Every structure is written in C-alpha cells, then in structure tokens.
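Lay summary

Proteins are chains of building blocks that fold into shapes. Our project writes down both the chain and a compact code for its shape. Here are two examples, one after the other.
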Amino acid sequence: MTPCRKPCAATVAADKAVFEFEAQTPGNIPMRDSGDHSPLRIGLIVIGLLLACTATLKAAEEPTAWRILPDDSDAIISALALRQDERRLVVGSDRGEVLVIDAADGSTLRRWTIPDAGRIHVLAFLDEKRVAVGDDEGRITLWNFADGLLLETLTGHERWITALVVSPDGKFLASGSYDRQVREWDLTVSPATSTVLFAHPAAVKCLDISRDGQKLVAGGSDRAATVWDLASRKPLVTLKGHTGAVRGCRFTPDSGTIVTAADDGTVRVWNAETGARQRTLSGQAVMVWCLDLSPDGRRIASGGFDQTVCLWNIETGKRESILRGPTAPVVNVIWSDAGEFLYVASEEQTLRRYLIQPETKATP
C-alpha cells in the first residue's frame, strides 16, 4: 500500500470533548464527539485514521502540474475540454479567457478573451476545428481554436450556459442553462438553428447523450435527473434520491447505466431503463461537482469542493483511491480516450494531469 505523501496526525484524549484530526482525513473534516471516550472507541478511531492514511493510490506518480494562467492574473480555471485525438485541451477562466493547451506538455498554443463573457462555465469540442463556449451571458460562441477566430454566436438562452454536449454523429449540440431550458442546435447548417428540446423543472446543471444517440439525461437544481427520448422528446424516467443539486451525469458506453454526482456529496449509479438506483458511492467530504467515466465504463472519477478526486469501481462501488494535489474545488475531470491519463481542473491557475495505472487495490 502506498502511504500518504503528507504526514497524518491525530490528537486523541479521553478527557476532552472534541477529537482533533488533520492532514489526510477526508476533506480535513473534524470528527464529531459522540460522548463515548472509552479506550476501545479511541483505538478504533485511530485505526480508521491509519487505514485512511494508507489508501492505495491509483496514480502511478505525482501529477504533472501546468501553471497555465499568469502569476499576475487573478483569474481562475472554470472549465475544461479535451479533443478526441487527445492532442489539445481547451481551458476557460472566470474572466472570459479561452486557452488552447498542448495536452502533451501543457504549453499554451493560443489564447483569447471573449468580451463581456464573464465566467466560462462549459466548453465542448464540436469537431477537429471548432470548440463551443458557454458563458455567463447566456451565449454559446463557436470558435476556430486553431486561430482563435469567432465563427458564430448562438443566442436563445436567457441565463448562463451550464452544459453542452455534442451528439455522437456530430449533427447537433444540446445545451442546458439556468433558464431551465434544454435546446438543440442544428450543426449541419450555418448559422446553426435551435429548438427547445424540453423544459427542465429547475436550473439545468448537466447533460449527456447516450452512445447510441437515442437518449439524453439532464440533471439540475431540482435534485433529480430526467432521461428523455430524443426521437419523441418525451421523458422516460426520472432518477430521484439525491438531496442536493445534480451537477454531473454520464451514460456508460453501453447506454444501460447512468452515473450522477450531486451537492449531497454522493455519486449514484442508476439503471437507465427503469430508473432503479443500483448503488450509492459515499466518501467525498462535501459537494461533488463533476464526474467522468473511464473509456471502458468500469471506473468513475469524481471531483468536488473538498479539493480531491475519487476513483471508484462502478461494479462494486468501492473507492479505489483518492487523488490529491488541487488546492481549490475541482470543477472538471476528464479521462483520456485511452484511459491512461486523467485531467483535473480546479478553481486555481494550475491544470493537473495524472498518469493512471490499470489496476489497483481498493481503498479499505
């Protein structure tokens, strides 16, 4: 087992009402006193801490850290996208900046600022040449990322854009917004035209389209995710159980399972056909803001407010490891198509890339 890279510490006293734990306890959250100060209870707590502090890491090495925003900037990373060929990353900031990054060495290839954009909430590659950017102003702008030229501005949403996903055939773009709408944009014509796919009960936080192109799942502030049939535009099933806003949702490659992440600190696995909850993954200290699935659909990466990334086995629900390094809440995690790397964006000026091993032991 690989020990924690930072020292673990615990202050335990039977005559005190509060136990103090620091360093590698999940999220550095103090343990609450139960009133039982017996030696047995204290011993069990210490054993639990030692197990947490010797969790097997799935990363083979320390992450590669790329400082992509300048030292004199007060901007932070707010969005991330990876091109399918894995050669380029696009990063958005909370100051309307867009940066094209070489995925091999982290160098900045191009950079531009979108006037009056505010925070860039979401990015999506449309094809080998174009990237879509969703901002605070309810706009979706399409850019040629090779030269930074604006191609189109898509208007229709009334509030900020929170989710973008391209259909498997590349013919349309689905967008979600705080205006509670999910729109479909026809990418086969220029300028792209849009129609409202459906209205969500609350602000839309996340979207995904099944690999077979037949279904779309939308999660939001209503603490649920709804699965829609794209042909009939009718709801099929609603995934209920989260007690906080649903911020992340993904179909597995076979389209039969959906994974969601929410502000209640849990990741949940659902049957996409029946809506039955298969398992609940708990372990992150607070809100889970993002997730992604490994290319084979067997593992989940989830990131959140506690500045960590957890790797889970989707079949067993076991947490395989905790990846540390970010010093701010994690806003995006993206698995490379080959499954070798995990890219992690957090609300700071540094982007991280983790080299992932194919096998690992589960965290106790």
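And here is the second example, written the same way.
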Amino acid sequence: MPTTQLSLGTPITLVANQTYALPASAVQLVWQNTVGADVQGSLDGVTFSSLGVSAANEVKTVFSGATFIKTPAANTIVSAKTAPVASFPSSSSGSINANSLVLGSDVVLTRDSANTLALRNGVSGQGFHIYNTFTDSSNYERLEMDWVGNNMFIKTTGAGTGSTARNMQLIAGGTLTVGSSGGQSWVFTGSVLTPTSDNVSDLGIPASAKIRNIFVAGSVANRTKAGTPTDADVNTPTDGMMIIDTTASKIWVRIGGTWKQTVALT
C-alpha cells in the first residue's frame, strides 16, 4: 500500500515499483525520465495499468482519475496538478467533437453508433459505479454495474463508513417486463404479475427448484375441466396437482401417478 502521499504542484522523484497515493481530486500528471518511463495507475492499489509511456527526456502529460500510481523506472520525476475543467456559461451550451474519450488507459467512452454511448475496452469486462457518498476508496456507498466472469451484476454496496445496506427499487412509469434468454417472460402491471403469454410459464421445477410456500389473502383459482382429468391436461404431470371436474362436481388430485377423485361436492 502507498507510503507517500503526492501533493498538488509539488514535484517528487519516484522510487521504482513503490506505490504512491494521488490527491482525492482528478489530476493532471506530468512526468519525465532520462530513459523514459511507464507510469501506471490503479484505483485500489493492487491492480495497475499503464497511464502512458514517455520517451527518453520527454515531458509526458496525462489526465487521470487514478487513486494510486507507480513506475518500474527509477528516478522518474512526477508532478500532480489539478486537472483543468472545461466549462461553459450557464446560459450557453458546448460540445466535445470526438469519437472516443480515454480516461487513464483502460476506461474508454466511445460513440457506438448514432445516439449510442458505449463503455468498452477490447475483451476486458467494464464496470460503472454511481456513488451515493464518497470519502475515499475505503469509505463509500455506491451502485455497481459490473461484468465479472461473463456475468453482469447490478447491486448496491459500500465500505467503511458507507457499509449501511441500502435498498434498491426498480419502478416503471408504465408496465415493467422482465425476461431471460433473449425473450420476455413476466409483466408487472400495477400490482398484477402476469406471464407475457398464456399457459407457457412456470414457477419452480418439481424435482429441484420448488417454491417453498405460497401465502394468499384472497383465494387460489385451480384449473377446471368438464370431465375426468388426465396427464395430457397438464404440463409436467406431478403428484399433488389438482383439477376441478365441473361436470361431476369432483376434485381430482394426482397421487402416485394416478388421478384420484373425491366424492361429488354438494
């Protein structure tokens, strides 16, 4: 972990492979080395990537949002400055005419297509964090959207003074539709949950992923049929299934692979 805190505007000669902490604000880094230097940045002090490589005696300037830096090249002189901010009068608008904006060396905001902003960097999974609070890299609350091991995670998290568990709400102004495998499966309309198509969706799997309990304040409406039920009347015939016979006024229950009936209801 870092042993030296860099100060804004004060040049320092870096020790090779030693980690240094940058000021909390985004900075402009300027460095020079007689043989050239690869200065690397990190957010956590563990995983580093190159911010840029200077040629011999070149004065290299980059803008970085890194928290820590280090370099394998000894005698690299580095100065950290406050990064300039592009601003426009409140009554006007401005633009940056570019296809890509590179932050550090591994965060790339780019124009994917018309009206489409992308965050990408080759085959490296990207992440996006929205903060509720931030003191430093050890004390914060944030929403994380990250690709990890080819899985996309969306979660609220925190550390240090921001370790309070925060709630998350997903609310649509109209209907809310969720699905998987590239399709739509369930629709929330107000307080009603329905499948997107009739008689094609299940809750749970009989042998391996059952719903433990279902609690209702109203009633459960079972399947009805005019006549004796058979396995062909249901999807995935399973013991415990129940069908109401509207012709004979009987309740049929599947037990031991056979449909068994009650006496006629009066």
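What can we say about the second shape? The chain has no helices and 22 strands.
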